[in-house]
Amino acid sequence: MKTPTASSPLYYIGLMSGTSLDGIDAALIAIEGDSPPHLVATHAEPMPDALHHLLLSLCHAKQVSFAQLAAAEHAFCQSQAQAVQRLLAPLSISHAQISAIGSHGQTIEHAPLGHNGGPAYTLQMDNPSLLAELTGCTVVADFRRRDLAAGGQAAPLAPAFHQALFGRASAHQLVLNLGGFANLTWLSSQPTDPVIGFDTGPANALLDGWFARHQGGRFDQDGSWAASGTIDNALLVRLLSEPFFQQPPPRSTGRELFHMAWLEKHLSGQEAAEDVQATLAELTAVSVAQGITHLKIHDGPLTLITAGGGAHNTYLMQRLAYHLPGATFTSPAAHGWPEDWIEAGAFAWLAHQRLHHLPGNLPSVTGAAGPRVLGGIYAG
Ligand SMILES: Nc1ncnc2c1ncn2[C@@H]1O[C@H](COP(=O)(O)OP(=O)(O)OP(=O)(O)O)[C@@H](O)[C@H]1O
Ligand SMILES: CC(=O)N[C@H]1[C@@H]2OC[C@@H](O2)[C@@H](O)[C@@H]1O[C@H](C)C(=O)O
């Protein structure tokens, strides 16, 4: 196994298609010596409408045929291969120089506590064998299930990567990812303190779903439709009564709990659609602020590195600032990592960890019995 040195970096590609189902993010990273991973190039492969709707329907399907699953998996893998092709095409780095692709796969369902008394499971649709065949690269995949097997939540996994990227600063770091769901990572200024990380609740998944239903289109640009509404406090209280928001970490969640039917259950039917959108943004802002309060930070002024697509939602960011008075919001771009690329970068880094037999999880975050080497290798 090659070891990275300052003169010969190792290259990895991370492929992430998150719970927003907006597209496949491809990030090429370089690992040189002991330095934090470096972002070299990126490509966002848009999710074709047909695939977006197919995956969304699978996430909420009560019954699925094997043929439907196979069709979705095949189309998804073709898009992944396309993403790799388009990422590398303008570069002087060839497929042969890629140590491995880290493929997250598409989360279809996540039930780390099991369902109705059944075993814990987390399901990422993926076809790493086909991806290895289509790209000629070694693929590392199935990152979550080893943590689950060790009694962990299998999510969030990004906190370990946040530590690799930002953990050397002398001051504390608080990283907020606003994806389909939101998660927080706390890196203390004392490197010996355990990393804390957990999902705070829904973010873009519900905002996108309500927007698509009432306005058409994929998402509420800059949160302008939400900003045109009024927060419905009674609705907010009903939404926040969901026990998940009171659950102590380790905790993770997804579309199996927070879906459109969950929202509808709490609606009186009298609400204006834009008021619901404003209230959903408020739900994200309040649940993140409550998550931060739960951390009881006494480590200097609060500084947040905000990442994920929700960091572009101006209205949501204004509501977060309102609920976190005195906090400073920074972009990870200051560390060379623009907000949209951290998660894809995380799965590239996890592939490196796997090839070097290094742990990928943080038991202090997921609750697993111990550090574990995550993922399986599919030779190129
Ligand atoms: N300019 C913008 N205004 C409002 N929302 C935006 C904007 N840009 C991106 N978004 C939101 O970000 C979402 C995509 O975010 P991201 O790529 O972080 O999600 P994800 O990869 O599915 O995340 P995760 O895996 O963490 O759930 C879009 O679906 C949209 O809701
Ligand atoms: C099961 C799953 O796919 N979870 C995602 C989701 O999207 C955000 C949040 O919920 C986080 O827990 C996780 O993704 C990131 C990459 C993580 O594991 O850190």
TrEMBL record:
What is this enzyme's class at the first EC digit? Answer: transferase
Q: One matching Pfam family, short form? A: AnmK
On the tree of life, the source organism's domain of life is Bacteria
Which residues bind ATP per the record?
Answer: G18, T19, S20, L21, D22, G23, I24, D25
Give the stretches traversing the membrane.
none
Provide the GO MF annotations for this entry.
Answer: kinase activity
Q: Which UniProt keywords apply?
A: ATP-binding, Carbohydrate metabolism, Kinase, Nucleotide-binding, Transferase
The EC number(s) attached to this protein equal 2.7.1.170
InterPro entries from the UniProt entry = Anhydro_N_Ac-Mur_kinase, ATPase_NBD
User: Any keyword Kinase?
Assistant: yes
The record's section on Gene3D superfamilies has: 3.30.420.40
The reply to whether Nucleotide-binding figures as a keyword in the UniProt entry is yes
Concerning its family, UniProt says: Belongs to the anhydro-N-acetylmuramic acid kinase family.
The record's function comment reads:
Catalyzes the specific phosphorylation of 1,6-anhydro-N-acetylmuramic acid (anhMurNAc) with the simultaneous cleavage of the 1,6-anhydro ring, generating MurNAc-6-P. Is required for the utilization of anhMurNAc either imported from the medium or derived from its own cell wall murein, and thus plays a role in cell wall recycling.
Note the HAMAP family from the entry: AnhMurNAc_kinase (MF_01270)
Q: What is this protein called?
A: Anhydro-N-acetylmuramic acid kinase
Q: Which organism is it from?
A: Halomonas casei
